[in-house]
Design goal:
Blueprint: E1 2-6, E2 13-20, E3 25-31, E4 36-42, E5 67-72, E6 75-82, E7 87-93, E8 99-105, E9 117-127, E10 130-141, E11 147-158, E12 165-170
Antiparallel strand pairs: 1-2, 2-3, 3-4, 5-6, 6-7, 7-8, 9-10, 10-11, 11-12
Length: 171
């Protein structure tokens, strides 16, 4: 479960992101002080989208493991683990009111990214227009499936730019 707030003053909206453990979807609830509204963000797509496809759409993957949200003046962002493929996904909802999807990390070892099994644990925050996501990356497990090599990673960007900056904070 993750929670963030958009708007200001009497126009604030509470956003709650949570997992549907039956359908393995990522759900979103909003509360305006009087009423709740509910929607499915992701997980109810027609097929599992392969991790190497850069143009993202709604997927049929299990996205019920972890999520974190951040709100900026230009829109709402949520980041979540694709358990089916071990990657970190994101969705953005701006003025259009429609979700757009992206792959954040876990797909390649170039551009300071990782092919680690990412996002089992994550947190996100917005400071002004800058969004930061901190998450884990499992790089190696032993025969007992215990983690023996992993990282704590940080991805940052301004607004909803597709350009992320990546750093490993600790190994």
């Amino acid at each position: 479960v993750s929670v963030c707030v958009s708007g200001s003053g009497n126009s604030q909206i509470l956003h709650i992101f949570y997992s549907d453990l039956v359908d393995n979807d990522l759900r979103h609830a909003t509360f305006d002080g009087s009423n709740f509204k509910f929607e499915i963000v992701d997980g109810n797509g027609p097929v599992v989208q392969p991790y190497d496809q850069p143009n993202r759409v709604r997927t049929a993957s299990d996205v019920s493991i972890s999520n974190a949200c951040a709100s900026t003046a230009i829109g709402l962002q949520v980041f979540y683990r694709d358990e089916t493929q071990g990657i970190l996904l994101g969705a953005f909802k701006g003025a259009t009111g429609k979700w757009t999807y992206e792959l954040v990390d876990g797909d390649r070892n170039t551009d300071n990214r990782t092919t680690g099994d990412v996002g089992t644990h994550l947190s996100a925050v917005a400071v002004g227009s800058k969004v930061s996501v901190i998450y884990d990356s499992v790089l190696q497990v032993n025969q007992q499936k215990q983690i023996i090599v992993g990282e704590v990673r940080l991805a940052t960007r301004t607004g909803n730019s597709p350009l992320w900056n990546y750093r490993t904070l600790d190994t």
